[in-house]
Amino acid sequence: MEAAKYRRVVLKLSGEALAGNIGYGIDPETVDRIAREIKDLKAATELDIAIVVGGGNIWRGLAGSSKGMERATADYMGMLATVMNALALQDALESAGVDTRVQSAIEMRQVAEPYIRRRAIRHLEKGRVVIFASGTGNPYFSTDTTAALRAAEIEADVILMAKRNTDGVYDSDPRRNPDAKKFTELEYLEILQRGLGVMDSTATSLCMDNKIPIVVFSIDEPGNILKAALGENIGTVVGGTKE
User: Fold this and answer.
1) What CA–CA distances, in Å, run from 59 to 21, 25, 173, 214?
2) What is the largest CA-CA distance in the chain?
3) Confidence check: pLDDT of 242 > 80
């Protein structure tokens, strides 16, 4: 067993992370790779692992509402997209031999457990990976905010925010500005004041209030989930200092 820097983590996976290079929907090869990385993390450490998945690879509530759909309806559709992603990830994890539970903030007992905080913690204590689906169960809240909320509820030590097409937080878009500066460390207030696109302001404020650090790193590089959990010098750390 390697000495992980943390005891309990929330891994935030965007929907795009499950789409891989296809760019839309669920790419089974990509999901299998991520599942193997989570399995390797579980095998290498004694970490409690919870996962929050987004749904942007299938549906984005903001995109729907921008075209005239009622915002609440569009957001509920996005929550259902996260359930599809959670079930795909659960299937890949269990195929890899990792005991997994999906908990949904919107009750759908035929496919997932309802979200119950104490039951989620008990699953983690028994060594199971818990996947949180359906966001917070409420419209107008992102899955970033879900990650911050669940991390506070289960007393996680950190949020590991796995991103596609970026290896950290920059002062501007590195794809458009070749001189963009990458940050190794940031404070929560800097995220809010600079308007940096790490996570939305509600999620950032929730992490700040509960002193939950965020590690932003690239999911595109194999092995980075384990490296981030071990506290290696990759990506950007928000609200905490690297040892």
Assistant:
1) 17, 9, 24, 25
2) 52
3) no
Containing 49, the helix (H) or strand (E) segment is strand 48-53
Contact 213, 26 (CB under 8 A): no
> Across the chain, what does the average pLDDT equal?
92
Phi, psi of 35 (to 5 degrees): -60, -40
- Cα→Cα distances 194→169, 170, 197, 202, 214, Å: 12, 11, 9, 15, 17
pLDDT tier at 119 (50, 70, 90 boundaries)? very high
Q: CA 46, CA 191: separation in Å to the nearest integer?
A: 31
What is the token pair recorded at 86? 């959670």
The pTM is what? Answer: 0.93
Task: Please name the amino acid found at residue 134.
Answer: S
Classify residue 162 as left (phi > 0), alpha (psi -120 to 50) or beta: beta
> Distances from the Cα of 63 to the Cαs of 19, 24, 68, 112, in angstroms?
18, 14, 9, 27
The letter for the amino acid at 31 is V
Q: Can you tell me whether residue 12 is helix, strand or coil?
A: strand
List the one residue out of 192, 193, 171, 167 whose CA is nearest residue 181. 171
* CA–CA gap between residue 214 and residue 199 (Å, rounded): 10
Residues 204-234 pLDDT 10s? 999 999 999 999 999 999 999 999 999 898 9
Token pair of 136, please? 């917070």
